Amino acid sequence: MSEEDNPHFLKGHALDLKQIRLDLYRLACYFEASRHLVGRETNGNASEDEYIPDLPKEFFKDEVSRVLLQSAIVLRILDDESEADRDERNPFICGTLELDGGSEPLGLREACNKILHARRMNYDKCSSEQRTPRDGRHDWYRPYLYLYGVQARKHWRAALDVRAFINHGARLLRARTLSEFIEWNEKYDGA
Q1: Domain spans of the chain?
Q2: I need a labelling partner for 5 at 20 to 30 A (CA). Which of 17, 95, 148, 165 fits?
Q3: Distance separating alpha carbons of residues 97 and 179, to the nearest angstrom
Q4: DSSP 83-110
Q5: Across-strand partners of 141?
Q6: What is the mean pLDDT of each run of 10 residues along the chain (191 residues)?
């Protein structure tokens, strides 16, 4: 067996950052659409949209979990590749962490850790006053998640602001290298 050296500048995993940004966009759309799909007017025809409210029930939680896990993995990889001193990094606050009876801001790196190690994830559910002929009131979800786990035999609870997570994650996923960042800025920001 012969080992071949990786000739690329980045020696680690080949990551498609645009795909992960697309997933973050989808995550934002899932939460934004959640309320609108269950509260949509049927224009007097009750059977017209009979099954649309069922779609979030079938796909929402699986897709949210998938996107969170994939993006947390990639964001952690990028964070590990960063050469900046950890103490000087902008923590990109996206929630709160409760541990040992105290509460502290939840930075993006720690949010990724909590997503990856959560033993339970709860959603922030609301009920729609809109009633449908088949099953009455429908639930929708606000963009907040509550993650629970154990670290060093201590229980923790992380309240994740999904919109802040998406915002900070999308910002960091613009580029993996300086040349990619310059190219991205020229293409999308017109700089």
Answers
A1: 17-189
A2: 17
A3: 35
A4: -S-GGGS-----EEEEETTEEEE--HHH
A5: 125
A6: 69 79 94 74 56 73 94 89 57 91 94 97 78 57 95 95 94 70 65 48
